[in-house]
Amino acid sequence: MNTPTKLAGFALVLAVALGGAAGIGHAVGPIGAPAPARMHHGTAASGAGHGDHTTDSNTATEETPGGLMVTQHGYTLEAATDTLTAGQPQTLSFVVRGPDGKPVTDYTATHEKDLHLIVVRRDLASFQHLHPTRDAAGTWSIPLTLPSAGEYRMFTDFAPAGGQGLTLGTDLFAAGEFTPQPLPAPVASVETDGYSVNLEGRLEAGKTSRLTLTVSKDGKPVTDLQPYLAAYGHLVALRAGDLAYLHVHPDGMPGDGRTPAGPGITFYATVPSAGDYRLFLDFKHGDTVHTAAFTAHAEPGTGPAEAGDEHGGHDGHQH
Q1: What angle do CA 269, 223, 212 make, to 5 degrees?
Q2: b/e map of 303-315 (b: 16 or more CB within 10 Å)?
Q3: pTM above 0.85, yes or no
Q4: Which of 127, 159, 88, 149 is CA-nearest to residue 289?
Q5: pLDDT (tens digit, 9 = 90+) per residue, 223-282?
Q6: Closest to 58 (Cα-Cα) out of 268, 275, 304
Q7: What whole-number distance in Å separates Cα of residue 133 and Cα of residue 139?
Q8: Contact 62, 152 (CB under 8 A)
Q9: What integer pLDDT is reported at residue 195 of this predicted model?
Q10: Which residue in 48, 71, 90, 219 has its CB near the most CB atoms, within 10 A?
Q11: What span, in angstroms and rounded, lies between the C-alpha atoms of 305 and 303?
């Protein structure tokens, strides 16, 4: 099967914080101003990658994005099989081998989990955020259904005990007739499971940009989002074309006395190159996790990245 995209290396940095202000979303475009300081580079942004390092004039570093390599820093992702049957539940099993060649059995939990598994179809038409279980020997397993034929990418987002956070990736295949879907155009609002999620903000390469996602249901703001993995919202960002990966989380946490339970979730994003990105927001309400997907286009930067405190005043967590 021919992959519809060609991997190309580039640097991706995306930092995130949770904002308390609610607002009505607008189209991704000329809306909002960049935050006044550059965000901190998290461990996921410096994760796995391959290919040539591309440098934009506004790029602060030449870090390789996560998820493009099967091996990095001595750690290797090894799937038991790379071929599954579309539309049928099957068990996906894999190990992460350490520098000694043995399966890793000791991890540092990030957002309540030792490992986060993301599976996307390469045209970004399908997305799953999963949490497999690990046996004593270090083998991870989870039931997985690839919804249709095509080529998929699986990402393992984890931190080995005593080590830095890593994102390793490898391809999965589901045989059958496959028609790639075009990337949806940027829009102001999407519907998911009866919820409306509005996106307000603009991405600009090399600048710290503010994105606010506001959740409503039946025309009313949702102000009682439920904790999910120790947060009110989670964001996975993938660049269209090479699927460079970053998993980010909001600042603050439920019960800290300052983090509101909706309706607005604000992210401060720094992307170093122009182009299209697909953003997947997970949030929990009504005891169910829902996912809203947006396309955001980053315009070319108009100047150098803004300087300032590397945290930008926000302690965005990443894994």
Answers
A1: 15
A2: eebbeeeeebebe
A3: no
A4: 127
A5: 999 999 888 888 888 989 999 887 656 667 898 888 899 999 877 777 767 899 999 999
A6: 304
A7: 8
A8: no
A9: 98
A10: 48
A11: 7
Distance CA 89, CA 93 (A): 13
Q: Could you tell me whether strands 195-201 and 208-217 are parallel, antiparallel, or unpaired per DSSP bridges?
A: antiparallel
pLDDT of residue 207: 79
In the chain, what is the straight-line distance between the N-terminal and C-terminal CA atoms, in Å?
Answer: 31
286: three-class secondary structure by DSSP:
coil
The two tokens of residue 145 are 């259904």
Peptide bond into 36 cis (omega under 30): no
Nearest to 270 by CA among 234, 242, 312: 312
β-strand 83-84 against 166-174: which pairing, if any?
parallel
Find residue 212's DSSP bridge partners.
Answer: 200, 266
Check if the beta carbon of residue 210 is closer than 8 Å to that of residue 34: yes
Can you say how many angstroms the Cα of residue 97 is from the centroid of all Cα atoms in its chain?
A: 23
* Strand-strand pairing, 275-285 and 234-239: antiparallel
φ, ψ of residue 151 in degrees (nearest 5) = -105, 135
Q: Token match 């550059």: residue?
A: 38
pLDDT for 251: 63
A 10 A CB-CB count for 267 gives 29
Cβ atoms within 10 Å of 36's Cβ, excluding its own: 12
For residue 212, which of 18, 13, 12, 14 has the smallest C-alpha distance? 18
